[in-house]
Design brief:
The complex is a heterodimer. Chain A is mainly beta. Chain A has 8 helices and 45 strands. Among the domains of chain A are: 176 residues, YVTN repeat-like/Quinoprotein amine dehydrogenase (Methylamine Dehydrogenase, Chain H, 7 Propeller); 130 residues, Cupredoxins -  blue copper proteins (Immunoglobulin-like, Sandwich), CATH 2.60.40. The chains are: A mainly beta, B alpha+beta. Chains A and B meet through loops of A and helix 2 of B. The complex binds copper (II) ion.
């Protein structure tokens, strides 16, 4: 009898808990997988045919940016950005090493999170894609005619550039922000316990030259010492504004998982960047010391050049009224995403039980009515009730990022409950949900962050594969899922491994980029100071201990390919010019014992690798790319003699 | 000479002018790695690629079997042809002005001789190009030569070569046809 009662009690308790879970987090998601054959047809791109979209996935801790086709999910290329790439010689060749220079020296790695295209009238124009480096704060520009990193700008006085890159409507600015507040003052040495007095946040506004794409640090805004997580530029009516999320408004500096999760609300920051720009032009910004690198690949020579800057313009909200506001937002929000109309500001309340939606027009009204709760460091805090327009109930646990389909639907990734929820921007009610495999971070809809989305595909970027693929040991690649969102229900099409850890991705219709993609570098435009364009100009020159080898590559030989007169202790520069002008006809170069990588040289390009021979002997070098039928014969020898030898400097290819 | 014959000869002279501005012949090479093909145009005075770098790329491929480089500067015929055609234009105009029908016949004969010589020269060039191979070439296929077809299609190892007259040939043909037609009419059907 007593036992029965106990069982009954336990059963009701479990039922009750189940119900509570349902109420809090909604019904469990469904798989929503199409009939296999139908799904396969939707992603099948026949041999020789092209994908409809280019997609760019950030590499996360690989520091790279991978390029994919949608819907096939075939990877085309992995572009090195912040990380040395032994495959291509990026970061190893003399031409590319300066791109990785920072005020902390040569840093051959970073953590790349959020790519964003250059925009014209709010739409991606396919000229450049930008991506942030989170660790040693940087922003890179990749040229979409060559798919190569051409510029990297360091952000001064910033502790982790995470809320970046997000680009304004006509690429006026790329935004950035400090993720981890640190003392704004350069190299300031203080006790960590003095966080509240000495630490600051900062927001960065990087200008982009509309013609050349060249980036410059236009100005920064000093902020309270919160953590600034993600951002977005506004659209349409809100185009002059940029939005950032904050967490750790508690201002904790240790055990953040507990101490930074105490408050019910943190803030969404709204910055009128147009007004900020006016203030800066009026001279309201202070010039403060800073140290940061600007690395730019020269178009004529192909050589990246570093410039060091020693000051930056800093705007204090106390000197800049009506420019910046806080909107209270539950709770440690992650993403802040603007719907296609520019009216709704959706925050991913990471630890919240609802998805809060602010209204841009209500925000303007609240500012007009001065509906302020308080003012922090010159920044008015708007009343929550004055800006909020909806709270989406039952969004699952851990909502992060939202994108849109242009038909009044929003799609939010939900990390802890590992699903995507679709909800209505009219009713703020969940209308569909689907599983993610597993633990989704960002999601990306084709055009889903633009004023004019393509309601076609959605990619979920998930954090752990577990049992999804054939196992590869304790570490596995991060997966992604492709969904069809053209119908009423979200449908899973494909599940595939990616490279690095994609945090966010961007997609663009292939026809915007494809016609502009270069097939070769024009040899006539190669103004590299050490280029040789004809084999008869190939030569070796010695200047003290520095030896320069001016070498041509063409199928299937190097000129010169026999070199004598190199001595132990020399610094030998191999300047390799690929004098081919045929698409994809790439040559490589590697020499035994070189303490770096190989270099790959595209048609028409000149690349340089340094070699410090340390022992006498004969050193073979060869073409690392299988360029032709006689590829295996594409090789040569360097003779290295003792430091005091007088073997004359000679070079040749063949008998002439 | 009748006025219409004179005008016909002037027309024949004028029809040769566009032949300076368009290729006379085209050769296209396709291979598995070159689905869109590489190609060259034969002009009266030049050889150019279908695309900017095609000649360079054809030369790179050809060197493996020991073929000589295509260098328009080394093809003597290309220096002579513009003058030969210029001579034919002048002669047609002179014949029309002087009005002597025998001059028109001289023009026809010279035209046919020059045209035949041009085709023979083109064939010889193709023959030499395809047969005179560097004995130290990396790839040697016994009994294989690489002469492109004068006209039509031919498979040369992994490459399919097609060779056809181009617009310049049409203008040349029209010129010859126009000049011949009025000359023949004046000579044999002139009594009206
Ligand atoms: Cu090679």
């Amino acid at each position: 009898m007593a036992q029965q009662t106990t069982i009954w009690k336990i059963t009701s308790l479990l039922l009750g808990l189940g119900l509570l879970a349902m109420i809090m987090y909604g019904c469990p998601s469904q798989t929503g997988m199409l009939d296999t054959r139908e799904a396969a047809q939707k992603v099948y791109v026949a041999p020789g045919e092209y994908d409809e979209y280019y997609a760019f996935f950030s590499g996360g801790y690989s520091g790279q940016l991978s390029v994919w086709g949608l819907p096939s999910a075939r990877m085309f290329r992995n572009i090195p950005v912040f990380s040395q790439d032994p495959e291509s010689g990026y970061g190893y060749s003399e031409e590319t090493k300066p791109l990785l220079m920072t005020s902390y020296g040569f840093i051959p790695w970073d953590d790349s999170h959020h790519p964003d295209f250059s925009h014209t009238d709010g739409m991606p124009d396919g000229r450049w894609i930008f991506i942030n480096g989170n660790n040693t704060p940087r922003v890179a520009r990749i040229d979409l005619t060559t798919f190569e990193t051409v510029e990297i700008l360091e952000l001064p006085n910033t502790g982790g550039n995470h809320a970046s890159t997000f680009v304004t409507e006509n690429t006026e600015y790329i935004i950035g922000a400090t993720r981890f507040s640190i003392p704004y003052e350069m190299d300031k040495d203080v006790s960590i316990d003095s966080y509240k007095e000495n630490f600051d946040g900062s927001l960065s506004f990087i200008a982009v030259d509309p013609e050349s794409g060249e980036m410059s640090m236009d100005f920064q805004i000093i902020m309270p010492p919160y953590h600034y997580d993600l951002g977005r530029a506004g659209k349409g009516p809100s185009a002059d504004w940029a939005f950032f999320t904050t967490y750790n408004t508690e201002q904790a500096h240790t055990l953040l998982e507990i101490y930074a999760s105490e408050f019910d609300k943190d803030y969404v920051v709204a910055v009128n960047w147009r007004k900020a720009q006016e203030y800066v032009r009026e001279g309201r910004a202070r010039t403060v010391p800073a140290k940061y690198y600007h690395n730019l690949k020269d178009k004529n020579t192909g050589i990246a050049v570093s410039t060091v800057h020693d000051e930056v313009l800093l705007l204090d909200p106390k000197d800049a009224p009506d420019m910046i506001y806080f909107m209270p937002t539950p709770k440690s929000p992650h993403g802040v995403d603007i719907d296609p109309t520019g009216e709704y500001i959706v925050a991913g309340g990471k630890l919240a039980t609802v998805i809060p939606v602010h209204s841009f027009s209500r925000m303007l009204e609240a500012i007009g009515n001065e509906a302020f709760e308080e003012v922090i460091n010159g920044i008015p805090v708007l009343e929550y009730e004055a800006t909020i327009i909806g709270e989406v109930e039952n969004p699952g646990l851990g909502p992060l990022h939202t994108e849109f389909d242009g038909d009044g639907n929003a799609y939010t990734s939900v990390y802890i409950s590992s699903e995507i929820v679709k909800w209505s921007l009219e009713t703020f009610e969940v209308t569909d949900r689907i599983d993610a495999y597993y633990s989704i971070g960002h999601l990306m809809i084709t055009g889903g962050d633009t004023p004019n989305p393509d309601r076609k595909y959605m990619v979920g970027l998930t954090k752990t594969a577990r049992d999804r693929f054939l196992p590869t040991g304790p570490k596995q690649l991060h997966p992604a899922q492709l969904y069809d969102i053209s119908g009423d229900r979200m449908e899973l099409l494909l599940d595939f491994p990616t490279i690095g850890e994609p945090h966010y991705a961007q997609a663009i219709r292939a026809d915007i980029i494809k016609p502009n993609v270069k097939q070769i570098y024009d040899l006539d435009d190669n103004n590299h100071p050490h280029a040789v364009k004809r084999p008869r100009d190939a030569r070796v020159e010695r200047d003290g201990d520095v030896v320069r080898v001016y070498m041509t590559n063409i199928r299937s030989h190097f000129t010169p390919d026999n070199i004598e007169g190199i001595r132990v202790g020399d610094t030998v520069y191999f300047h390799l010019t690929n004098i081919e002008q045929d698409w994809d006809m790439v040559h490589g170069f590697a020499i035994k014992g070189a303490n770096s990588g190989e270099v790959l040289i595209a048609p028409g390009e000149t690349k340089t690798i340094v070699w410090h021979p340390q022992r006498t002997g004969i050193y073979p070098f060869y073409c690392t790319a299988f360029c032709s039928a006689l590829h295996q014969e594409m090789q040569g020898y360097v003779r290295v003699s003792a430091a005091d030898s007088n073997v004359p400097l000679t070079w040749r290819t063949g008998d002439e | 000479m009748k006025k219409s014959t004179r005008l016909g000869l002037i027309l024949a002279a004028l029809l040769l002018i566009p032949a300076y501005f368009t290729p006379i012949w085209t050769i296209k090479l396709t291979a598995p790695q070159y689905p869109d093909g590489l190609g060259m145009y034969i002009w009266m005075n030049d050889i150019t690629g279908h695309e900017r770098h095609d000649i360079r790329n054809i030369n790179i491929l050809n060197h493996y079997v020991g073929m000589k480089e295509i260098d328009p500067d080394l093809v003597g015929t290309l220096d002579i042809m513009p003058w030969v055609v210029g001579g034919l234009i002048t002669l047609a105009v002179v014949a029309a002005l002087v009005g002597k029908i025998w001059l028109a016949w001289v023009w026809i004969v010279l035209f046919v001789v020059a045209g035949t010589a041009g085709m023979v020269d083109f064939y010889m060039w193709g023959y030499d190009y395809g047969h005179d191979l560097n004995p130290r070439a990396a790839i040697k296929v016994p009994d294989m030569s690489y002469q492109p077809p004068l006209i039509g299609r031919k498979t040369l190892l992994n490459i399919t070569a097609t060779s056809w007259p181009y617009w310049g040939t049409l203008w040349i043909g029209l010129s010859l046809a126009a000049g011949t037609a009025v000359t023949v009419r004046e000579s044999f059907f002139g009594k009206k």
